[in-house]
Design goal:
Elements (H helix, E strand, L loop, with lengths): L2 H13 L16 E2 L3 E2 L2 E2 L4 H8 L4 E4 L5 E8 L3 E8 L2 E8 L2 E2 L4 E2 L3 H4 L13 H7 L4 E2 L4 E5 L3 E7 L5 E8 L3
Antiparallel strand pairs: 1-2, 2-3, 4-5, 5-6, 6-7, 7-13, 8-9, 10-11, 11-12, 12-13
């Protein structure tokens, strides 16, 4: 397991109260648009618009970095979808599957795999599927493949089994 993923999983487990571990977001569309959005939440959207797009069930808290807010929709059986805002605007989006600590493995249930690109890339897709669907994705080292634009970066973390274990879209600081 990658140290960053372990850190993120630990933070989510510690930060979210038990009642928040209820459901993934319920957006109208579960499309991932490279460099732009996940499930209708776009980079640059307001906090209120992002919360509206994903529906009830999320928990928002002050982020670890001053001036940020972290909102997460988590389901211990289906995974986590989250976004981060700074000064009220979305600056990052993330998807990750559930992790079974007793088996030390990820699972890729249908609910989290429903979030996908127009080419069908989702959590659990193989590196070969990623490369076929998104040939612009470049190897960034440390099992990370990414597509960068002038304004954002979409990153795919590949686990030891060659499957996508996280998808993030972040604003590039200027």
């Amino acid at each position: 397991m990658r140290p960053l993923t372990l850190l993120l999983a630990t933070i989510v487990a510690l930060v979210l109260p038990a009642h928040a571990l209820a459901a993934l977001p319920s957006p109208k569309s579960k499309r991932i648009v490279i460099g732009t959005s996940v499930g209708g939440v776009k980079l640059g959207a307001s906090l209120s618009a992002a919360k509206r797009a994903w529906g009830k069930g999320g928990v928002c808290r002050s982020g670890l970095v001053s001036g940020t807010t972290q909102c997460s929709w988590a389901d211990k059986r289906n995974g986590v979808a989250s976004f981060t805002t700074r000064r009220g605007k979305v600056i990052g989006l993330a998807l990750s599957p559930p992790y079974d600590a007793s088996k030390m493995t990820y699972s890729y249930p249908k609910a989290i795999r429903a979030f996908r690109t127009s080419g069908g890339v989702s959590l659990g897709s193989t590196l070969a599927q990623l490369r076929a669907a998104l040939p612009a994705a470049g190897d960034r080292g440390q099992n990370r493949w990414a597509i960068a634009t002038a304004a954002s970066i979409t990153a795919f973390t590949i686990n030891d089994d060659g499957r996508i274990q996280s998808i993030t879209i972040d604003v590039i600081a200027r």
